[in-house]
């Protein structure tokens, strides 16, 4: 999947540069590409300073402009797109940094962060590199030669029911 995304990125960026070269010439295409990178890095630096100030205020429990966790996650994605070479990725990164897009994507990012945090806390398989759930196996030994009788609570489809502790709902996702 990652190879496919990487190949798609390369194809899109080469096609964009080829289109710029065809319509404007190589010099203008190169100038636009370098200019987009310069603008992207300038906006990235400015936004990083603002995000750092928001995170400091949040750590002191002072009011901030938005949700620091979702803003940090969106900023990480925008920074990745901005740093990648090419006009298209820089434009995508700059669009992700705009306040209307951040407001639109913040609830989805917040839900994802809460879900991922509950996986890390509970130790659910597949959550942040953990591959097991700590616990005990319940059962009764009928005799020396028999197997353990499984009394594990199960879902209707046969999968094991695991009661996971939940984190409190974030203010964004509460009804």
Automatic annotation (TrEMBL):
<feature type="transmembrane region" description="Helical">
    <location>
        <begin position="28"/>
        <end position="48"/>
    </location>
</feature>
<dbReference type="InterPro" id="IPR007313">
    <property type="entry name" value="FxsA"/>
</dbReference>
<feature type="region of interest" description="Disordered">
    <location>
        <begin position="156"/>
        <end position="175"/>
    </location>
</feature>
<keyword id="KW-1133">Transmembrane helix</keyword>
<feature type="transmembrane region" description="Helical">
    <location>
        <begin position="69"/>
        <end position="97"/>
    </location>
</feature>
<dbReference type="GO" id="GO:0016020">
    <property type="term" value="C:membrane"/>
</dbReference>
<keyword id="KW-0472">Membrane</keyword>
<protein>
    <submittedName>
        <fullName>Uncharacterized protein</fullName>
    </submittedName>
</protein>
<dbReference type="Pfam" id="PF04186">
    <property type="entry name" value="FxsA"/>
</dbReference>
<keyword id="KW-0812">Transmembrane</keyword>
């Amino acid at each position: 999947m990652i190879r496919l995304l990487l190949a798609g990125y390369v194809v899109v960026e080469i096609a964009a540069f080829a289109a710029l070269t065809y319509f404007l010439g190589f010099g203008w295409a190169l100038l636009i590409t370098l200019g987009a990178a310069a603008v992207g890095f300038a906006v990235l630096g400015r936004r990083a300073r603002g995000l750092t100030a928001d995170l400091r205020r949040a750590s002191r429990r002072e009011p901030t402009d938005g949700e620091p966790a979702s803003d940090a996650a969106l900023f990480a994605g925008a920074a990745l797109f901005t740093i990648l070479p090419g006009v298209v990725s820089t434009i995508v990164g700059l669009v992700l940094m705009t306040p209307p897009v951040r407001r639109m994507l913040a609830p989805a990012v917040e839900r994802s962060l809460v879900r991922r945090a509950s996986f890390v806390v509970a130790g659910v398989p597949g959550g942040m590199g953990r591959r097991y759930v700590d616990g005990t196996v319940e059962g009764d030994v009928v005799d020396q030669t028999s197997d353990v009788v499984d009394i594990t609570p199960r879902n209707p489809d046969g999968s094991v029911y695991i009661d996971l502790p939940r984190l409190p709902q974030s203010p964004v996702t509460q009804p």
